Amino acid sequence: MTRKNIVIDLGGSLIVPNEIQIKFLKRFKAFILKNIKKEKRFIIVAGGGFTARNYIKAVSFFNAPDKDKDWIGIYATKINACLLKTIFREKAYPIIIDKNPSSIKEALKYPIIIGSGWQPGWSTDYDAIMLAKRFNTDQTIIASKIDYVYDKDISKYKDAHPLKEISWDKYRKLIKKRWKPGTTAPVDPVAAKLASKIKMKVIVANGKNIKNLENIINNREFKGTIIS
Questions:
Q1: Which of 2, 71, 78, 104 could bond 116 through an S-S bridge, CB–CB 3.0 to 4.6 Å?
Q2: Per-residue pLDDT tens digits for 123-137
Q3: Ranges of residues in the chain whose predicted pLDDT is under 50
Q4: What's the CA gap between 183 and 7, in Å, rounded?
């Protein structure tokens, strides 16, 4: 059976905003299991969320360099990835992908593949886009806690407007140019540069809305932002 590969960067803010979201994870599991029966394969990359930011904030008081902050964030993504792998243990590839896979033949025997962060210098946005390229899909879904990309920081500006579509050139002008550990841009600057270079379409959407995710993977009308 030839499966359609779907890459989802599952934000840590959905997995662990302050405590593990059991109800959401149950709904997400049901969504994934339902769709693997429809000849789909999911490559799910776990973000670090609150766990990562909490540890990064802590080591900042001890003047840790950015590389060390990145590493501690990466380990937060690994524990979240381990959680997802355990949740999907009967259907998931037993090895968490935490580096650029030189061979994917073994992984392709499974309908669910779990990834994590693997190297300092970017977020799991970059890892997800890299894996989308590696698994020959032209689209990456960034499932986070926001409904859209906005023209301003929605947490600071009440007059921020949602953007349903935006080019990579325009998007990159909205965000900071350089990566810093704990950056909260919808798509981090390093990932945005890669996606622009390889012409990867990214959809940013609220991952809590499972019905909306269903619409995205089935090419139906959805709520979110297309960056291309």
A1: 78
A2: 999 999 999 999 999
A3: none
A4: 21
Bridge-based pairing of strands 201-206 and 225-227 is antiparallel
* CA dist 108 → 42, 98, 112, 121 (Å): 10, 16, 9, 28
CA 60 from centre of chain: 24
Closest of 95, 98, 92 to residue 73, by C-alpha: 98
- What does the block give as tokens for 47? 């973000």
Q: Which domain holds residue 41?
A: 4-227
| Secondary structure class of 111 (helix, strand, coil) | coil
* Domain CATH number, residue 186: 3.40.1160.10
Please state the length of the chain: 228
pTM: 0.95
Q: Are residues 123 and 188 in contact, defined by beta-carbon separation less than 8 angstroms?
A: yes
List the Cα angle 76/79/80 in 5-degree steps: 85
The predicted pLDDT at position 159 comes to: 92
The type of residue at 2 is T
**Alpha carbon distance 217, 11 (integer Å):** 17
Instruction: Compute CA 69 distance to the chain's CA centroid, rounded to the nearest angstrom.
Output: 19
Are residues 35 and 111 in contact, defined by beta-carbon separation less than 8 angstroms?
Answer: no
Which pLDDT does position 1 carry in this prediction? Answer: 59
Element (H, E) at 106: none
In this structure, what DSSP letter does residue 16 have? Answer: -
pLDDT at 165: 98
